[in-house]
Design goal:
By secondary structure, this protein is α/β, with parallel strands linked by helices. It has 2 domains: 3-203, Rossmann fold; 247-370. The chain contains 17 helices and 5 strands. It has helices at 10-21, 39-51, 65-71, 97-106, 112-120, 130-141, 162-173, 193-197, 209-220, 224-234, 238-246, 248-266, 273-281, 285-308, 317-330, 335-350, 355-370, and strands spanning 28-32, 78-81, 150-155, 179-184, 200-203. Helix 7 (162-173) links the parallel strand 3 and strand 4 (179-184). Helix 16 runs antiparallel to helix 17.
Length: 379
C-alpha cells in the first residue's frame, strides 16, 4: 500500500510523512474514521513508509527489500490484529492472517461486515478475545527483524472484549522502544477513554464526492456514468462506491424496494405492507444493512428536494424523478425521527433480530412519522 494509491486525504498524507521525517512518531496512533474513509489504508501506507529503508519525501521507494515484503503485507516487523469469529477453540487470529491480508490487498476499504461474511458467512459476530491481546503483547516483545520499528495494526479495536482491552491498555501505558501500535477504529467512542487518551488521534473524515468520483475513474478505471452513480450512493463511503461501481444493478434493486416501501408507508391502505416487508426480510443481513443505509441517504436527498429544490440535489434518472415526487411528503417531517428509527433498525439487524417482525415494526413507525406522530420505541 502506497500513499499514492489512497483516495483523498492529501492533508493527512503530508502530515503523516512529516512526522516520520521529523522523527516525531508517537508510540501509538489512532486512525479513527467511519467505514469507507480509508483509515486502514492510511495506517498501512504509513507503516510501510516508516519501515522503508530508502523513503523519499512523500512516498516509500518501492524497490528496497523491505518494500518488496511490504507490497505483500509480509514484512516480519509489520503485524496485524483484527476481529474474528471464534470457532473450534480458535482464540487467536493466526489462522485468519492469510485471508485477512488477501482481503485487504483486494479492498483496503472493506467493512467489518464484509470480513465477517468472508470468514464465517451470515449472522456471525466477531470479537478480539483476551488471548489475541496476549498475542499482540508477545509479538511486540520480540526483537525487530530488520533493526527498526515493530508495528502492530489493530483493525476495529472496538471489538476487543473487556479483558482484552485491559491487557492492551497495559501495553499502551508501558511501550517498548521502537514499538508502534496503530489503532484503526470505525467507532472510537466505543473504546475505553483510557485507551483513547494513550494514542495520538489521526481523524480520517468521510471522503468528499469529488474525491470518490476521481478515485473511481483514475485509480479503478470506472467510466464516468457509473462513477457518478456510485458517488451519489456512497455518502463519503468508498467501500459502498466500489461495490456500486462493480454491481450498478444492485442500486436499482435497492431503489425499487425503497420506492415500494415508502409508497406503503405513505398510503398503507393502498398497498400490501406484508408483501413489501417480506421482500426486504429476504435480503441477506449484509444487504439489509446496506439497504437501510440507502433508505437514510434517499430520505436525506428528498429533504434537499423539498427545501432547496432539484438544482441542489445529486440524484439522476428514475431516482431523481421519484425523489422530486416524494419530496412533498418529507416537507415538515422530522428527519431526525426517520434517522433514529432506521438506525435502530440497523442495529437490530446486526443483532440478528427476526427480520419479518423487525420490518413490520419499522413500517409501523415510519407510518406514524409520516402521519406527524412521534414514533414508539423499537425493541
Amino acid at each position: 500500500m502506497y500513499f499514492k494509491d489512497i483516495v483523498g486525504h492529501s492533508d493527512l498524507k503530508n502530515s503523516l510523512t512529516q512526522i516520520v521525517k521529523d522523527d516525531h512518531v508517537s508510540h501509538a496512533l489512532m486512525f479513527a474514521g467511519p467505514e469507507g474513509s480509508g483509515n486502514l489504508a492510511l495506517a498501512i501506507a504509513f507503516s510501510a513508509y516508516l519501515l522503508c529503508k530508502n523513503r523519499g519525501a512523500n512516498e516509500r521507494c518501492g524497490v528496497c527489500p523491505n518494500c518488496k515484503q511490504l507490497d505483500q503485507l509480509g514484512h516480519p516487523d509489520l503485524h496485524f490484529s483484527f476481529p474474528f469469529v471464534k470457532k473450534d477453540k480458535i482464540e487467536i487470529s493466526e489462522v485468519f492472517q492469510r485471508d485477512f491480508k488477501i482481503q485487504v490487498k483486494e479492498n483496503p476499504y472493506l467493512s467489518l461486515k464484509d470480513w465477517e461474511i468472508k470468514i464465517a458467512g451470515e449472522n456471525k459476530q466477531s470479537i478480539i478475545p483476551v488471548d489475541e491481546s496476549s498475542q499482540i503483547v508477545k509479538k511486540l516483545s520480540l526483537k525487530s527483524f530488520a533493526g527498526g520499528y515493530k508495528v502492530m495494526i489493530i483493525w476495529m479495536p472496538e471489538k476487543l472484549n473487556q479483558a482484552a482491552e485491559n491487557k492492551l491498555l497495559k501495553t499502551l501505558e508501558e511501550p517498548s522502544p521502537r514499538t508502534l501500535i496503530l489503532l484503526v477504529p470505525a467507532k472510537p467512542e466505543d473504546l475505553l477513554p483510557t485507551i483513547i487518551s494513550r494514542a495520538q488521534m489521526v481523524r480520517c473524515r468521510p471522503l468528499r464526492d469529488e474525491e470518490i468520483r476521481t478515485g473511481l475513474i483514475e485509480k479503478f478505471g470506472v467510466n464516468q456514468e457509473v462513477a457518478e452513480k456510485a458517488t451519489q450512493m456512497a455518502e463519503g463511503n468508498f467501500n459502498i462506491a466500489l461495490k456500486t461501481a462493480k454491481d450498478p444493478d444492485a442500486e436499482n434493486a435497492y431503489f425499487a424496494l425503497f420506492r415500494d416501501w415508502m409508497r406503503t408507508c405513505v398510503a398503507p391502505k393502498n398497498h400490501d405492507i406484508v408483501e413489501v416487508t417480506e421482500k426486504i426480510a429476504a435480503l441477506s443481513r449484509d444487504q439489509q444493512g446496506y439497504f437501510l443505509d440507502y433508505c437514510l441517504n434517499f430520505l436525506h436527498e428528498a429533504v434537499i428536494y423539498a427545501y432547496l429544490g432539484k438544482d441542489k440535489a445529486r440524484y439522476m434518472g428514475a431516482s431523481a424523478e421519484f425523489a422530486e415526487k416524494f419530496a412533498p411528503y418529507m416537507a415538515g417531517k422530522d428527519l431526525g425521527a426517520f434517522h433514529d428509527t432506521l438506525s435502530k433498525g440497523h442495529r437490530l439487524v446486526e443483532r440478528n433480530a427476526n427480520p419479518r417482525l423487525l420490518y413490520m415494526k419499522l413500517s409501523a413507525e415510519m407510518i406514524r412519522i409520516f402521519m406527524g406522530k412521534r414514533p414508539e420505541p423499537i425493541s
